[in-house]
Specification:
The protein is α/β, with parallel strands linked by helices and about 210 residues long. The protein has one domain: Class I glutamine amidotransferase (GATase) domain (Rossmann fold, 3-Layer(aba) Sandwich). The chain is about 20% helix and about 30% strand. It has five helices and 13 strands. It has a seven-stranded mixed β-sheet with strand order 2-1-3-4-13-12-11. Strand 1, helix 1 and strand 2 form a beta-alpha-beta unit. The structure holds glutamine (GLN). It catalyses: L-glutamine + H2O = L-glutamate + NH4(+); aldehydo-D-ribose 5-phosphate + D-glyceraldehyde 3-phosphate + L-glutamine = pyridoxal 5'-phosphate + L-glutamate + phosphate + 3 H2O + H(+). Keywords: Glutamine amidotransferase, Hydrolase, Lyase, Pyridoxal phosphate. Pfam families: SNO. Its EC number is 4.3.3.6, 3.5.1.2.
Length: about 210
């Protein structure tokens, strides 16, 4: 049985552990560098990327985790987890730099934090997800979107146009799920949708394929 870690410094840890276990893998919370040993994959949950950056330093996890990711450890990040997996981060509507966030550089993308702006800073919508048959219900909470992707990054989902996003028209068409090799990221929170583990299963398939 594959063992998948869940970075457990902050954020939606329990929901990812539960979703992974429903997919038939062993889920292990990770707070210390030693707990990275023996993992076949790792999930970085949602939460707050500035806090996660600070805690990675305090727990001496930043460099060990960065190295494991650079070595090809399969990884999945949701929301703040997507921000942490990215190569570069900017902030809000004006795209200012986000100096308080130090991403781990596992995914060749630039991510914009809190991208959706005030009117729709949290919303839910159904969206098509490449590799999953039927639309996925997506919960966005002060979510990022992906501004730029490098070669080798595939787009798995974009925000559909519709009433959920019409208050901020530039949100439609934005990239909200990507994959590069064994690294997957979503701007939304599949772990909050009970009874639907399809995105986690998609990640577990990536893990099993390694
Ligand atoms: N806005 C948060 C951040 O910048 C992410 C929110 C989330 O993970 N739900 O880290």
């Amino acid at each position: 049985t594959p063992v998948v870690g869940v970075l457990a410094l902050q954020g939606g840890v329990a929901e990812h552990v539960a979703a992974l276990e429903r997919c038939g893998v062993t889920a292990r919370p990770v707070r210390r560098a030693e707990e990275l040993d023996g993992l076949h994959g790792i999930v970085l949950p949602g939460g707050e990327s500035t806090t996660m950056t600070r805690l990675l330093d305090i727990f001496d996890l930043y460099e060990p985790l960065r190295e494991r990711l650079a070595d090809g450890l399969p990884a999945y990040g949701s929301c703040a987890g997507m921000i942490m997996l990215s190569a570069a981060v900017c902030d809000g509507g004006d795209g200012a730099a986000a100096p308080a966030v130090r991403p781990l550089g596992a995914l060749d993308v630039t991510v914009r934090r809190n991208a959706f702006g005030r009117q729709v800073d949290s919303f839910e919508t159904d969206l098509d997800f490449a590799g999953v048959d039927d639309p996925v219900h997506a919960v966005f909470i002060r979510a990022p979107w992906v501004d730029k992707i490098g070669d080798g990054v595939s787009v798995l989902a974009t925000v559909p146009d519709g009433p959920d996003v019409s208050e901020r028209s530039e949100a439609a068409g934005r990239i909200v799920a990507v994959q590069q090799g064994a690294v997957l990221a979503t701007a939304f929170h599949p772990e909050l949708v009970e009874g639907d583990e399809r995105v986690h299963r998609y990640f577990v398939q990536i893990v099993r394929a390694r």
